Amino acid sequence: MKLAMIGFGQAGGKIVDRFLEYDDRTNSGIVRAAIAVNSAKADLIGLDRIPEENRVLIGQARVKGHGVGADNELGAEIAEEDIDEVQNAIDSIPTHEVDAFLVVSGMGGGTGSGGAPVLAKHLKRIYTIPVYGLGVLPGTDEGGIYTLNAARSFQTFVREVDNLLVFDNDSWRQTGESVEGGYEKINEEIVKRFGVLFGAGEVGEGQEVAESVVDSSEIINTLSGGGVSTVGYASEEVELNTSGGLLSRFTGGDGGGDDGLDAANTTNRITSLVRKAALGRLTLPCEIEGTERALLVLSGPSKYLNRKGIERGRKWLEEETGSMEVRGGDFPRGEPEVSAAILLSGVTNVPRIKRLQQVAIEAQDNMDDIQEESDENLEELVEDDEDELEPLF
Ligand SMILES: Nc1nc2c(ncn2[C@@H]2O[C@H](COP(=O)(O)OP(=O)(O)OP(=O)(O)O)[C@@H](O)[C@H]2O)c(=O)[nH]1
Q1: Which of 15, 71, 241, 324 places its Cα 20 to 30 Å from the Cα of 293?
Q2: What's the CA gap between 334 and 26, in Å, rounded?
Q3: Which portions of the sequence form the region Disordered (predicted)?
């Protein structure tokens, strides 16, 4: 699937940057265009791969390139005011070559949490291709304002996009890690999961060309109907033996047919990989029962994939989710691992979202404190930076 990715705010920009790196590394060819939008000049300068002409600074008249200091409403306002500048960058994208937009944003700050829903709404008005969101929830230890921003942003983002894919930082943060080091690892987990999923059916340059069962229309169909989605993932390495053939821990690699693989063994291993992916840590932890639609993508060298295993995994997912709409297929790739990625779309029983909704309700009661905290943040930022930063480019 070919995507036009737009990273909104710092987290959004960094994650899109990382997707470009993933694309280069794996030759997956999913990022057709990449844009970063931010109100903080320094964040845009810090990006590595997004082309400079695709980095859009908004809100200069209001915040002078300093960011909005976690003020979600201000983030939304400046996105609305400067939407034409974002559109100018989007105009350079060959949208006829793109299957969907993916708007990526952290939901705890101000720029992305306020601006991403505004952009999604704008894109949906103009284009006919789907507009998906990838929203990152803040850690619960980040403070009240971040949780409140996420609660507000979630409500609007999910309404404006065709489907909101969610990653929850809270369930992925390791204790004892520096914040930046922690995000590096987390961002890698994000691009791996969503990369395998969106990469299904794409054949990058030099990739193994094979008949693939999953294509972009199946991803789109699974996401259509809207709501919130989460992704499960599990993988096992397969190793290269000395003669250059693939020998596998995945299959036992110890005999059987001509190529050293045993079909029944492969089927069983695929089934257990599917269970691990669905029952292990999801990008947004939830009860999988009650999921409306699901898609299973098995990827790896074609000789380690078989229809029977995928079919069994798919059936098992149908039973566990109670959904009648579970798609499945393979994605042959010349990678030294076999992986299962599961998209659960339209999930309903999500404890973190329930807590956020509660926060949004309670926030109505202590609006004044929150406004004060947010104003102080903004004042500090503007005072901090009396000397103007150098022009961006
Ligand atoms: N996964 C991940 N999350 C991040 C990263 N950076 C920040 N976050 C999360 O995203 C939230 C929003 O932060 P930012 O993206 O920095 O905020 P912003 O949208 O730029 O808005 P302002 O800084 O308020 O102008 C934070 O609360 C973190 O939870 C990152 O690199 N990876």
Answers
A1: 15
A2: 10
A3: 366-393
